[in-house]
Design a protein that fits this description.
The protein contains eleven helices and nine strands. β3, α4 and β4 form a beta-alpha-beta unit. The chain binds N-carbamoyl-L-aspartate. N-carbamoyl-L-aspartate (NCD) binds next to α2 and α6.
Amino acid sequence: MPFAHDHLLGIEHLSPGDITTLLDLAGQYADMGRGGAKHSDALAGLTQINMFFETSTRTQASFELAGKRLGADVMSMSMQASSIKKGETLIDTTMTLNAMHPDLLVVRHPHSGAVDLLAQKVNCAVINAGDGRHEHPTQALLDALTIRRAKGRLHRLNIAICGDIAHSRVARSNIILLGKMENRIRLIGPPTLMPAGIGEFGVEVYENMQEGLKGVDVVMMLRLQRERMDGGFIPSEREYYHRYGLDAEKLAYAAPDAIVMHPGPMNRGVEIDGELADDINRSVIREQVEMGVAVRMAAMDLLARRLRERQSPPGVMV
Ligand code: NCD
């Protein structure tokens, strides 16, 4: 199925068919990476600029690596050190970079909706690498690919998403994606960390971890997003770990072959036990990082095909 999108701004714009197309191609890139043939020329001659207005380790590194493996000219801007500090607006900075004719802009920003706004101003493909608490589409896609490879399917699974749902763009994109693919989603966390109106998302909500985890196939843990909290949302980290931190004892309530996921960066001893996170029989956290590169390669490849189509409409000789 052709991928008919000019940007990748959120899972909400993708159909189940789009998601499958993306994951199929990402699966091929993942196999290629494991087989040692890491490079292709899908983005040869194209310029990719990464603009990160919020800190990032794995997302920024994997976008950079993905672009390089596909042959793009890649530039990563650290926006903390840029003219934004001198008072230039987001739009001005973007238009300055746009004047250098990038083909792909990868943007992370602390404000929900900022990346959508940017996409309306530039004439290249824009990928949302996380905007506020809104969406983080490539994270949900890499989670989906990890689940599909571990479980052999991406439908009719019982999936628990646990912790700070209210402030998490990862949770939001995952709820939308996993819902579109017809899975049963349970959200587990204290009421203070549940977004208002969550009932409308077609999910089950649990306050008790043991109850919520019963029989699930996938346990997805989330970091407490302190940078997005203004005030006390939890009594203390110790109390939080006691009630919501995932350890072997709580995991025993899930299905015997349940997998453990975390998008990173993870706080050991706050939302997850360190030993469990490293247990290769249960945790797929490392695979998530590996699939991150493959998913970003696939997303940029599909957007680049669209770009090339637009640059050379049918019937025009190039
Ligand atoms: C997530 C993010 O930035 O939203 N991290 C990531 O992209 N791997 C989750 C988080 O910061 O907790």
